[in-house]
Please model this.
Amino acid sequence: MPGLYIHIPFCRQACYYCDFHFSTNLSYREEMVQAMIREINLQSSYLQDNTLQSVYFGGGTPSILDIPQLEDLLHEISSNFHISEGAEITLEANPDDLSIEKLNSLKALDINRLSIGIQSFDDRALQFLHRVHNAREAMESLDKARHAGFDNISIDLMFSLPGFSTDMLKKDLRRAMHLRPEHISIYNLTIEEKTVFGNWQKKGKLTATNDDDSARQFELIISTLEDHGYEQYEISNFCRNGRYAVHNSSYWKNVSYLGIGPGAHSYDGKNRQHNVANNHLYMKALARGSVPFTMEKFDKKSWANDYILTSLRTKWGCDLKVLHEFSGYKLIKSHEKEIEKMQAERLLYSEDNKLFLTRKGRFLADSITAALFWV
Ligand code: SF4
Model:
């Protein structure tokens, strides 16, 4: 069953590492919601199967919307699609938006999963990242969410922060383990060119953490989370008791999805399309009754490489039959020697016509996948 993604392109302030699509001008939120409602209606026949297994409000900062705005969007979704029984309905939220009243209202809207952008429980790190919330709000947001009845909570954390010690990471992990979220996404800070950090790096004011230190921190993360009952089911994603992220997993399993909002992407099982990443152009086009997107034509080679890149990162592995059926690429045949070598080095293993990364291989995921690409 497919999924629906809704991109809310607003944030209170720009985090220094972020290159997502968002605006800090919040004055036209309602106009944007109305444009998205029009898009949901116009795109209602995009997916072959109209029954949704997941709805995901991402961003930007979806928790910036008022409850009536979220209610209007959900109403439009359920008028145009069938939300399956037990579907995962996730809202990304920042800790500073999560008052008890708001959480109770979100629960009443049948939002059943929160993904809270915590990043760190350390005030100095949060200031460095230019996050809008502080450590106290981060801690309290989970308690309040539990109190409101949320039993499926994910948190985002970051590591490899330049100038911050492994001790700080240990403290972050201790706090996370104390709060016991069902799911944790943890990302290595990457410095993107068009961000404040990118600018600082260019001017020599910031140096990224070196690869060895990052690898050591990642090893610490994996062992700490595994010791506490979390399963690493994707390189950056961990959960306990099988609470995999249904929506995000669908991206890794070649499931189709519809993306609503400026900058959102859609995939119908064959082609991808990309909505314009400009709020005003998006709203203008929708006011005229058209969806402003560009179509990426199906290209067997890029599909195959994308599939290898995403599937190998997961516990479900790279299904060689799916790879061949969709793209015609015979991975084993074209990379027989490389694969044998990686198996001998215990970086890869195969089972049931699928390829998997070993624990050792997960540390070298990027170079392994690149070596298997169809060139
Ligand atoms: S809140 Fe999220 S989307 Fe917004 S600037 Fe920060 S990281 Fe980017």
Summary: The chain has a mean pLDDT of 95. The domain at 303-372 is CATH 1.10.10.920 (Arc Repressor Mutant, subunit A).
